Amino acid sequence: MGFKCGIVGLPNVGKSTLFNALTETASAQAANYPFCTIEPNVGDVPVPDPRLDQLAEIAGSQKIIPTRLSFVDIAGLVRGASKGEGLGNKFLANIREVDAIVHVLRCFEDDDITHVEGGVDPVRDADIVETELMLSDLESLERRLVGLQKKANSGEKDAKITVALMKQATELLADGKPARLADISNENRAEWKALNLITSKPVLYICNVEEEAAATGNEFSEQMAAKAEAENAGMIVVSAAIEEEVAQLDRSERSEYLETLGLHEAGLDRLIQAGYGLLHLITYFTVGPKEARAWTVRQNTMAPKAAGVIHTDFEKGFIRAETISFDDFIACNGEAGAKDAGKMRLEGKEYVVRDGDVMHFRFAN
């Protein structure tokens, strides 16, 4: 099960530098000119989770396999992208394929790095990108609505539902508001998702600040904090330049380096965890002497579906899930202790998996 976060923003805001640090490679060419990233670069990164190390230590696991999240470095967008300006069409096509949007904003002054809008103003930059995405969604809806309206008028039930949702989205967008603000009932969630509107995707703002402001933020990030709060959106402060340096260090050296900067953890760890939360994902674990492994599912996933993440046969033949909470596994010093203490539960097909569950699936061949 793959989940993708698209890294977007105007040119020269630090997207590729951040991506390089995330993937600990220089595969995305970072250069001081627009559109240096033309084809979207994709990198799978491990999701930091100290619980996995604790479980592996208790079980004596030979291998530790974290769960992963994909980040896509997408070409910089400019004003007029919805009309094809710059690499607008390619940008918009690529961004429709991701599950969430990580919006990088330049929050630092540097005369040596050109700003396509002539000066630093992250709120303005965020509005430029959002506007282009909304215009693209409007165009997409208007193009599809004509044909679908005929089906709805003829009495087709599914078409009626979809047309109603499209009109709801169109009204929001025409009012200058992203589609993610729409109030959609649970029963219509599938149809809403099928519209594949860019502005319906969850957004996380990344304020890329200078090194000195990495721990505290600055006036630009404060402006964005107010905007994010008003939109009920997530926001974190990082210095892409620092993260690129940290990525080149041995893991043993990273903590010491971060401490000298007044940082308790790498900004990228916070970014990955925030991306994970943005998609409403949780982690369950399988633990044994061979390996301790983390698996990703969405919140409110039932046990058979979670088993299917490991193998489709596990879902098809699901019988039960032997389940221990993370806290109980640690407190009882492993599976045997949890069993003896009566902390292992036998969960059936209706069980909703909880974050941190340690699970062993029983299934029929």
Output the keywords.
14 helices; flat; alpha/beta; 3-stranded mixed β-sheet; 6-stranded mixed β-sheet; 365 residues
Give the strand tally: 12
Broad shape: flat
How many distinct helices? Answer: 14
Strand content: 15-25%
Task: Reconstruct the topology from this structure.
Layout: E1 4-8, H1 15-23, E2 41-46, H2 50-59, E3 63-65, E4 68-73, H3 88-95, E5 100-106, H4 122-153, H5 157-174, H6 189-194, E6 203-208, H7 219-231, E7 234-238, H8 240-247, H9 251-260, H10 267-278, E8 281-287, E9 291-298, H11 303-310, H12 312-316, E10 318-324, H13 326-331, H14 335-340, E11 345-347, E12 358-363
Parallel strand pairs: 1-4, 1-5, 3-9, 5-6, 6-7
Antiparallel strand pairs: 2-4, 8-9, 10-11, 10-12
Helix pairs in contact: 1-8, 4-5
In short:
With 365 residues, the protein is an alpha/beta fold. The chain has helices spanning 15-23, 50-59, 88-95, 122-153, 157-174, 189-194, 219-231, 240-247, 251-260, 267-278, 303-310, 312-316, 326-331, 335-340; strands spanning 4-8, 41-46, 63-65, 68-73, 100-106, 203-208, 234-238, 281-287, 291-298, 318-324, 345-347, 358-363.
